[in-house]
Amino acid sequence: MAKKTVASLQTGGGKNHTRVIKMVKSPKSGAYAFKEEIVTNDEVNGWFKS
Question: Which residue from 16, 18, 20, 43 has the fewest beta carbons nearer than 10 Å?
Fold first, then answer.
């Protein structure tokens, strides 16, 4: 499934998007989880700060 996502992003206008993954600690259990999104290249730094 990831191959389809990458392939579809590289065709057309998808070259200005980036897949970002951030590790987030749960305040309730203390366990770590991964948050993943596809954002534009301009919003990458802001996404990591939030």
Answer: 16
Here the tokens at position 2 are 């990831």
- 3-46: per-residue pLDDT in tens? 556 666 566 566 788 899 999 999 999 999 999 999 888 888 88
User: Which residues neighbour 34 within 8 Å (Cβ) at sequence distance 6 or greater?
Assistant: 21, 22, 23, 24
- Tell me how far apart the alpha carbons of residues 46 and 33 are, in angstroms, rounded to a whole number: 20
Region label for 12, one of left (φ > 0), alpha (ψ between -120 and 50) or beta (otherwise): left
What is the SS3 assignment for 13? coil
